[in-house]
Amino acid sequence: ASLALSADSQQRLLALLNGMPNGVIRMSDAVKGVVETSLNLGVVITGESEAEIICLIRSLIDSGKDYVVNMLIALGQLAGAKVVPQSCYPGWQPDAHSPVMHLVRELYQDLFSKTPNIMVIHAGLECGLFKKPYPHMDMVSIGPTITGPH
């Protein structure tokens, strides 16, 4: 028995990798300049007779992630591959009218005598995990100033 990908499997894997989206899928309609949905084709692991492609999907909205998963399933079917969706961060949409955000802004100004930099970012945040079981919970995420993350 062969312990390597067949020539046909190699060609299908390369075609799949070439056809897979990678990067920004869609920009947000709600927040100008912010990525809504993206896909990171992060790791390809080749084994003796199979290959595994590990991707990370991020989206402000769950329907954006669902769209990408369905796209990957369709591409996998065309390549004769099995797509196994794994867990991910649920989406968390920004709320410009959030009472908690306005309270945090006021408290920050009182404490530091300057206006906080409030922004929407495209990242996997724990707030999405809390928002899913508690959809009416108001929340903010406070993080450090990051320069040159990559």
UniProtKB/TrEMBL annotation:
InterPro entries: Peptidase_M20C (IPR001160). One of its GO terms (molecular function) is metallodipeptidase activity. It comes from the Bacteria. Gene3D superfamilies: Zn peptidases. One of its GO terms (cellular component) is cytosol. SUPFAM superfamilies: Zn-dependent exopeptidases (SSF53187). One of its GO terms (biological process) is proteolysis. This is Aminoacyl-histidine dipeptidase. It comes from Serratia symbiotica.
